[in-house]
Structure formats: C-alpha cells, structure tokens
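Quick start: what a row looks like.
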Amino acid sequence: MSAGEFTKIRSGEILVTRFATPDVVLVFDRIVGLVTDQGGRSAHAAVVARELGIPTVVGVQNATEMIADESTILIDGTDGTVEVLVGADD
C-alpha cells in the first residue's frame, strides 16, 4: 500500500500491508491494529505503533496473501498471532 492509498483506510480498521514504511504513521490515528509481511519488532513503524497502544504483528511473511480485504481478523501484539475470523467471501 502506498501513501496515496491511505485515504482508503477507514477508522477502526486493521492495516495489513507488505511492510510498514515511515509513511504508515499517517494513518495511526485511524487504525486499531497493524500486520505486516516483512519487518522486525524494532522497525520504526512497529515501535511507534506499540508506543501508541496499537497492537502490531510484524514479519508474518504471507499476511497480505492470506488475509483478504474486508476480512475480520483478531491480532495479538503480545503473542504475535493473527487469526482470520471471517474471510471476505464468508
């Protein structure tokens, strides 16, 4: 997701993206969670998200392939788990 696409993010959503660039902090006032395919716990966006109390799971590797838009997911930033509760097609 590029910074230009951030306008699509609605308040209360969990952002699932390939990696969190520094630009992702622009949507931290709207998201309630962050999941990335790549990155580590010490990545800038991951650190800032945790400081703001936004649950964050990074380095999932295939999150963007496994989680379709409009899916309902549960993330646990403490345990580093992501669970798809309802897929977009369900």
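That is the whole record. Strands lie at 13-17, 31-36, 56-57, 72-76, 81-86. The mean pLDDT is 89.
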